[in-house]
Amino acid sequence: MNSINWYPGHMKKTRELIQSNLKMVDIVIEVIDARIPVSSRNPIIDELVGEKPRVIVLNKKDLASPEENERWMSYLKRGNTTAIDMNCMSGEGVKRLFALLDDEKKRIAAERAARGASDDSDGSRNAARAAMLRNKPLRLMIVGVPNVGKSSLINRMTGKKSTQTGDRPGVTKGKQWLTLKGGMQLMDTPGILWPKFEDQQVGLNLAYCGSIRDEIMDIADLCLEFIGDMRQAYPGLLMKRYGLEELGETPLETMEDIARRRGFILPGKRIDYERCARTVLDEFRSGKIGRITLERCESDQK
Q1: How far apart are CA 3 and CA 6, in angstroms?
Q2: Which of the 8 DSSP states describes residue 289?
């Protein structure tokens, strides 16, 4: 498959949007995909956010391996990192997230009040200023690559359909501030990828999960790569979903077997590779093949 190298103009604008608004934000909520916890973490976000307090949301836990979810959560919580696993579509984990944010709000309010008292020019405790800083609304920013579930999380946090959602990248446009319970304010940002994938497997993983538009990919080639990876990692799930007694000797043979089982045949008994590819990838993305984690958490993970 050809290298996945691209960087649409709106990605540059999103980077500038994040950079220009970070100074107004107290906490950054970074949403990542539990199926690809490494590939769905944008290095540009690390660069932009720096030392700003951050909460990592391991989303789509219901689509990933339960055992791997536990391993990744243990890994993500190393050091002082705050992380939470969630299913933003169902709302599982939202109460835990709000409890965590309430704790952060109290900590930040105490720091603000202390600064307000110590910054007073005559050295006296300025109670009014301290109270104002203590009661200042907590401001949040949600970031992440496309299609990791940012909009679904926002809808759960606001308790209403505040943003458009879809199982495809690029749904969120521009920036919008939303008010949450307790007066917290939340800024949504469009999904952002980076200009070039040094590791092509990262690009493939993002494409498998729908973070890169199918329209710019050769969907049949992408599916062949996916089947090749599944043959190594989850052969049993692939055989069970498509009623295969065994896998073909190559990804292409396996794909053709799947197409025949599903009746994806064109006139002249030709295989409909595109229809087969779209079906397999859609069924992976929706969890119909099974709970799959494409990036395992190794004990020596860096």
Answers
A1: 9
A2: S
Q: Percent helix, strand, coil in the chain (nearest 5)?
A: 45, 15, 40
**Three-state secondary-structure class, residue 174:** coil
Name the phi and psi angles at 247, rounded to 5: -90, 150
The H-or-E segment that residue 221 falls in is: helix 219-233
**68-82 core/surface letters (b: 16 or more CB in 10 A; e: else):** bbebbbeebeeeeeb
CA–CA gap between residue 178 and residue 89 (Å, rounded): 19
Which residue's entry shows tokens 């202390």? 114
Q: Which of the four pLDDT bands, split at 50, 70 and 90, describes residue 166?
A: very low
β-partners of residue 176 are 188
- Give the residue with greater pLDDT, 119 vs 39: 39
β-pair partners for 155: none
C-alpha dihedral (213, 215, 217, 220), degrees to nearest 10: 120
Q: What is the DSSP letter of 161?
A: -
CA atoms of 281 and 230, how far apart (whole Å): 11
- The whole model's pTM is what? 0.87
**Type of residue numbered 292:** I
**Paired tokens of 18:** 């994040």
Structure-derived torsion over alpha carbons of residues 205, 207, 209, 210, reported in degrees to the nearest 10: 160
How many Cβ atoms are within 10 Å of 16's Cβ, its own excluded? 11
What's the CA gap between 130 and 124, in Å, rounded? 11
